[in-house]
Design brief:
Largest sheet: none
Protein name: DoxX protein
Number of domains: 1
Number of helices: 6
Oligomer: single chain
Radius of gyration: 15 Å
Keywords: Membrane, Transmembrane, Transmembrane helix
Order of helices and strands: HHHHHH
């Protein structure tokens, strides 16, 4: 679990989550948002209109990213991230294929780390 590869994957995923999470929380994003296809734009507009969904996701991403960077409760952070990374992947698969590469990277990094920490999840499946 403590190999250099695992450490690099954990830190990379943590940095991605912190940056994109903070971008969601800022009044004016520091990473410009791309032009979305109509269906994706409608979906994101509906999430933004709730007033809380994107903020909660942003907070979760920052917290999960910080846990990964600090190497605290990594197995717990990865389980919290699993539904978020799945939704990122599905959003780009069905609504905005232009961001598919980033979605695959996030899902793959999460999957690699879950695999590397599988011994901590084993008791959940017995």
């Amino acid at each position: 679990m403590n190999s250099m590869f695992t450490r690099i994957v954990r830190i990379l995923l943590g940095l991605i989550l912190v940056v994109f999470g903070l971008n969601k929380l800022m009044p004016s994003p520091f990473i410009p948002l791309p032009q979305l296809p109509p269906d994706a734009a409608a979906f994101m507009t509906s999430l933004a209109s709730t007033g809380y969904v994107l903020k909660v996701v942003g907070i979760l991403e920052v917290v999960i990213g910080a846990l990964l960077l600090l190497k605290k409760w990594v197995a717990f952070a990865l389980i919290l991230l699993a539904p978020i990374s799945l939704n990122i992947l599905l959003f780009h698969m069905f609504l905005d294929a232009s961001g598919m590469a980033v979605a695959i990277v996030i899902a793959a990094l999460n999957g690699i780390l879950i695999y590397k920490h599988w011994s901590q999840y084993r008791s959940l499946f017995l």
